[in-house]
Amino acid sequence: MSAYPKATDQGWRRRVRSRVLRWYDQNGRKLPWRETSDPYRIWISEIMLQQTTVAAVIPYFDRFLQAFPTVESLAAAEQEHVLRLWEGLGYYSRARNLHRAANVIVDENQGQFPESAELLRALPGIGPYTAGAIASFAFDEPAPILEANTLRLFSRLIELDSDPQATAGNKLLWKFAAWIVSRKRPADFNQAVMDIGSQICTPEDPDCMNCPLMASCKAYEAGRQAELPVRKEKVKFTDVTEVSIALQNQDRFLLRQRQESERWAGMWDFVRFEVAAEDVRTLSFPTKRKRRSSDARGQKSLFDGPVTLTPLPDTIRSELAQRTGLNLSECQPRTEIRHVVTRYKIRLLCLSCEVDSDGIGRHPELEWFDAAELADLPLSTSARRFADLLVSEGLNPV
Fold first, then answer.
1. Are 169 and 146 a contacting pair, CB within 8 Å?
2. Given a cut of 60, is residue 323 above it in pLDDT?
């Protein structure tokens, strides 16, 4: 494991700080959340940027602040509205925690943000990185930060030859981040090391020749930049098959709100559950065209030919009856969606069934919505794709 940082390395530290800040003055990215020291705007941006690229975040950031320009307006909003504006960013617990934290700030702190990293960490959804980012960017506290880009940069800079995600390696990197951050310009320094990590010290083929820290980098000196940081084992994915069943009565759909114990809690979805792959082998889905074409009504059709009724497999029929009280015998296979959620590779088979609304009693988790209302509901990305198909093509596409 690296010997850095050491109390005797003051000259090395000064050179690193100077080179980082000089580079940032000339090359730092101009981003909307960097034009302010408002802790609210900085907080929103940092939560959005977790697990999400800058390019993807910018339009969401702008829309979110138009809807909720202050922490008070966010606290006063319905959680469903917050989730709807978050839709597509994924990791929806971030949005729920934003809403919870806004209420804490308004109710317990009169709308004022805590001004230290230590106090910020008490808020829902704020970990050590986010606390350090807000504290340094908004309040100029020389707080350390460590996220994907700085973890990689610092691991190479000090030639960390242990797993940076493991307890010992991560603890050393946090210690290094606290030691190296500029006391005079902590906000600029922390923004700079993230930029250098994302633009130059990339996971593959780092651009060492254009890195301002090349002369200080222990991994480059040892010729080890390609092998560091130490890579943890790749995630082993589990294959899962699920069905999503749109229960439709004319232009209305029956949806279920997902519960706190489930992924995508608070979001609405069609009736959805896991099935065994062999239980759906009899279902035949329409084949996709290579290009979309328009039908006589000017609507774009995804599939060749009409969708015909298909017998529901017994296991799906039984599960559906248990969840809704409906005993349905036929369905229409509509589309197949493949997506990844954490360590699961999901094959989602989307079906639709015409039902009589009088046949469904009141259910605490199920509610009818007009097709036009689907646009305002917070849905998962896969549910949104299915909903858009249903609305655009109707129950019996031609």
1. no
2. yes
- Those residues with Cβ within 8 angstroms of residue 233's Cβ, 6 or more apart along the chain or in another chain: none
Task: Name the amino acid, one letter, at 303.
Answer: F
Please say if 108 is a catalytic residue: no
How far is the CA of 305 from the CAs of 25, 337, 350, in angstroms? 60, 19, 17
Same domain, 213 and 250: no
Range of the domain at 201: 10-221
User: pLDDT tens digits for 274-292?
Assistant: 999 999 988 888 765 443 4
Residue 141 lies in a domain: yes
Question: Is 398 within the bounds of a domain?
Answer: no
User: How is residue 136 written in tokens?
Assistant: 């340094």
Which of 46, 147, 159, 393 is the catalytic position?
Answer: 46
Residue 1 has pLDDT above 70, yes or no: no
At 129, which CATH number? 1.10.340.30
Residues in CB range of 88: below 8 A, 6 or more apart: 60, 381, 384
Residues 334-350 have a mean pLDDT of 94
Nearest one of 161, 175, 217 to 16, comparing CA atoms: 217
Residue 311: phi and psi, rounded to 5, are -60, 135
pLDDT score of 179 more than 60: yes
Residues 204, 252 within the same domain: no
